[in-house]
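User: My advisor, Dr. K., asked me to get a structural model of this assembly before our group meeting. I'm new to this, so sorry if the format is off. These are the inputs:
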Amino acid sequence: MVPVATFRHITIGQYIPGESLLHRLDPRTKILVTLLLVVGLFFIDTYLGYGLAALYIALAIFRSGIPPRFLFRGLRPVIIIILLTFMLNSFMTEGEILWQWGFLTLTKEGLSKGGMLAIRLILLIVGTSILTLTTSPLALTDGLESLLRPGKRIGIPAHELAMMMTIALRFIPTLLEETEKIMKAQMARGADFESGNLLQRARSLLPLLVPLFVSAFRRADDLAVAMEARCYRGGEGRTKLKQLAFHTTDFLVLVGSSFFVLWLAFSM
Amino acid sequence: MSIEIRGLTHTYNPGTPLARTAIKNINLTIEDGETLAIIGHTGSGKSTLVQHLNGLLKPTSGTIKVDGVDITQKGVDLRSIRWKVGLVFQYPEHQLFEETVWDDVAFGPRNMGLSDEEVRSRVERALAAVDIDTALAERSPFELSGGEKRRVAIAGVLAMEPSVLVLDEPTAGLDPRGRQDMLRQIQRLQAERDLTVVFVSHNMAEVATLADRLVVMERGEIVMEGPPKTIFAQGEQLERIGLGVPEMTALMAKLREKGWDVPDSVLTVDEAEEAIMAVLRREARVGTGGDL
Amino acid sequence: MMGNKDSFITVDKVSFSYTGESGAAEGTALDQVSLNIAAGEFVAIVGHNGSGKSTLAKHLNGLLLPTSGDVWVAGMNTKDEQHRWDIRQTVGMVFQNPDNQIVAATVEEDVAFGPENLGLPTELIRSRVDEALAVVGMSEYAEAPPHSLSGGQKQRVAIAGVIAMRPRCLVLDEPTAMLDPVGRREVMETISRLNEEEGITVVLITHFMDEAVKAHRVVVMDEGKIVQEGQPAAVFQEIDLLRELRLDVPPVIELASRLRAKSLALPEAILTVDEMVTALCQLRSEV
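Assistant: The format is fine. Below is the predicted structure of the whole assembly, which you can bring to the meeting.
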C-alpha cells in the first residue's frame, strides 16, 4: 500500500489561491526573480550569504501568506537527497580531522561544505515552491509563454510548449488517481508490485503501465476533439482571460531583488 | 462464505490536514449466498467499504472476518483473501493489459500459482460464464466492444473462482442492451455458482430486481438496512438523503396520497398493474374488461 | 439547396463511413440520414452504442464531414472550409467523459478557453465567463481545480465552457452516462433551463429514456439509420419496437400500455408518474 499512498503527498505544482502581494505579482516577475535566485544561490559561498538569502526567502514566505508547513511538506520527498549530500560532503572532504572511525573521516571543512550544500538545496526547493504555490499553473504557463515569445524567431514554439504544460498540469492529478485505481484493481487479481528481483519487479509493472498508457492515449484523443470543438486552432489570434500586466510593484520587486541577489552572489 | 464487519472505520491521510473519515463504525454481516446491494451517493463511503472486503484497504479501526478469519490481523495472507473475495472495480475494462483476451483472464489464476491445466480450465469456465465466445479468446482485448471488454474484465476476476463476488457499479456507462445483459449475467452467476454477491449501484430499478437485501449509506454510515420492499416503502427518508425509489414505488406512493388503497411494497410493473386493477375491480368501476 | 426554410440545422441524406489506416472504408456508420432541427427545439437521440448517434452528433458542428450528403448549420454547409469556425461557435458540443474535455487547471480558466480561442477582448471574456458560470450555477467554484469537483459539477463546467462561446445550439453526447443520480439531475436541470430560458437549441444524445421523455422530439437510431421519430408520447407508445431494439421502456409507459390492454380508457400522452396519477384519478372519479 505504501507506493499507492505516497502519490497523494506530492505537492509539486500545487497552487494555493490567495490575494497576497506575491499572488498579485506578474508571473513573469516571479519567474525571473526565481531564476535569478536559483542561479545566484550557486555563487554564494559564505554562511552570512546564505543567512541573508534565507532572510530574503523568509520575507517572501511571510508576504505570501502561505502557511510555512506547506513549504516544508515539499521538502519531505527530497529529505534523503539532502541528508545524503550532507553526509557525502562531510565525510569525503579532506582537511582538519574532527572524528575518525575506520575509513570514515569527518573533517571541519567537510562539515562546513556539506552544511552549505544542504542549505543551498533547501533554499532552492523552498524558493521555487514559493513560485508554484503563489502562481496558478495557468499564470505560470502564461508567464513562460510570454517570456519565451521572443524566442519564436529562433524556432522556440512558445505557445505549444505552454499549452503542453497547461494540459500536463491539468491531468497530473487525474492520472495519479487513475494509477492508484489500476494498481488496486490488479492487486485484486493477485498482482504483486512489491516483491521479487529487479527484472521481476519491472515485469510486474506491465499490468499497471499498459492500462495507464491506453487510458492516457484515450484521454488525449478525447481532449483533442473537445479542444477542436471549442475552436482551438493554435496560438494565432488567441486572447487571454487574464492579461499579464506589469505594474510598478513588479518593476520595484524585479529591480530590488535583482540588485540584492546580484550583490549576494558577487560579494558573499 | 460469510463476511462479518464490526466497528469498521476508515480515515484517509490520518494525522494530516487532509484527513478525512470516509466510513465510521460500520457493522454489517454479509450472509452466505445472498445478493446484497449497497446504495448511496458518490462520497457516501460505498467504494471505501467494498475495498475493505478483500483487504485492499486496511481499516483505521474495526475488524473484518472473512469465513471466520479476521483479515485485519497481522500475518494473514491477503492474496489468498483476494482469491476468495473477488472485487470488480468500476469500469473494470480499464484494467485490461494483456495481448490476448485469454492471457488477460489467465492473469489472476497464474498469480495463484495454479498448474497450466487448471489455469486453462478456469479461463474456459470464466469466459463461458460471461458469454464470451472462445473464438474471441485469441483477439486483443482492446479490439472488443465496450460491453465485451467489461465482461472479459469480470471473467478475469471470476477465473480466480471466488466465493464472494463484489462489483462496484457493474452497469455504469453501459447502453441499455449492455445493462440488461450484465444484470442477467449476474443473476445467472449467483444461481449457478452459488456465489455471494455484493454490488454497489445507483440504479434503483436494478437494485429492486437483483438484491435480496439493501444497505443504504450516507456520510460514511449505514442509515438503512433491509429487504428492498421494506426499504423502498420508506420513500420519504430515501428522498431526504437524495436517493430515489423505483418509478412504480413512487407511483404507488402518489396514488396513496390521493386516497388509493394500494400497497407500499410495489417494485415492478407487474405488481403495479395488479395493485391498480385490484382497486378498480373492488370498486367495480371497470366496465367492459372481459378478463376482469 | 439549403434544406427546409424553418430548419436551423439540416441533415440531408448524410452517409458516413469510417476509413481504416489503409484508406479503405470500414463499415458504414451513417446511412442516408436526414433530419431537420428547428431553432429552439429540444431533440433527443436514442439508440445503442454503434447505432451511429455519436457519429451523427459529430456531424452537427463539422467535427466529421459527410462521405455523401450535406449538413447545413444556419445556412452554412459544414463542408465549407471558410465557415468551419463559425459553425463550431454556433453549435457547441459537450462530451461524455467530463474529465477528458476540461483543458485548464482552474474552472474559470477552462470556461475562458473557448472565448480565448475566438480572440475576444479580455473584458468581454471576463463577463462571458462570469455569466456562463452563473447560468450553470457554478460561480462559487470559479477558482477551484477541476479534479476537486464531482462528476455533475465537472459536466456543468464543461457546459459553461461551451455556453461562454454564445452558441445557438448545444449538442450533448451522453453527458450523464458517467454520473450518479444527483449529477444526472443537476445536468438535466441545467440543460432544460438553457433550452427554456435562454432559448438554446438542444440536441441530447442519451441512453436514458427518462431523459429522452423531456425532449420535444425523440429520434431513435439503429445501425446508422433513423428508425423512428416523433413526439415522446408517440415514440414511446411503440413498445414493441423499443423492445425489439432492446432499448429500455420507461416503466410508466409500459404500465399505461398494459392497463390499456385491460380496456382502461387512459389517454395516449402518459409519460411521467404525475401524468399517470392524474389520469388514474380522473378515471376513478368519472365512472
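One thing worth pointing out at the meeting: The longest strand of chain A covers residues 97-101.

User: Perfect, thanks a lot.
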